[in-house]
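Structure (tokenized):
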């Protein structure tokens, strides 16, 4: 499942997302963080705008990225999906490096796991979530995947 995240919103390059996923975010460092206080959130992978990939949770373990969710008739997508967060925002285009790395990561995961669908957070939680947003080019991802 593909997500988009930036902390604070629309700001890139800091370590706040990694700190959120590891439970070390300083809630007082920015007013926006107060609304996140106490949230349990994580992802398997995080793809920086540079294309650098960080892994936070083994794919054999559950990450807390989906929240209340449903896909293909199944509830609780955290139980059966891999969460890949892209450093970004719904309305800001993702980088070439991110598309390339995301496609490589998805291809590698497909070789190891029985992955049928690659979907966005908005697909599994419509009305609640919008990421990775309209700035994410799904066709480009699928075309890049087809070349690997």
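Design, position by position:
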């Amino acid at each position: 499942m593909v997500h988009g995240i930036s902390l604070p919103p629309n700001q890139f390059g800091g370590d706040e997302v990694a700190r959120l996923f590891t439970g070390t975010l300083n809630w007082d460092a920015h007013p926006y963080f107060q609304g996140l206080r106490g949230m349990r959130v994580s992802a398997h992978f995080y793809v920086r705008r540079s294309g650098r990939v960080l892994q936070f949770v083994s794919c054999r373990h559950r990450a807390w990225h989906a929240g209340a969710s449903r896909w293909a008739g199944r509830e609780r997508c955290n139980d059966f999906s891999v969460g890949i967060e892209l450093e970004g925002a719904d309305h800001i285009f993702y980088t070439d490096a991110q598309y390339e790395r995301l496609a490589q990561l998805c291809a590698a995961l497909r070789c190891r796991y029985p992955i049928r669908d690659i979907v966005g957070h908005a697909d599994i939680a419509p009305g609640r979530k919008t990421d990775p947003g309209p700035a994410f080019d799904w066709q480009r991802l699928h075309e890049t995947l087809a070349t690997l």
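Reviewer-requested clarification: Strands lie at 2-5, 45-47, 53-55, 70-71, 74-75, 84-87. The chain has four helices and six strands.
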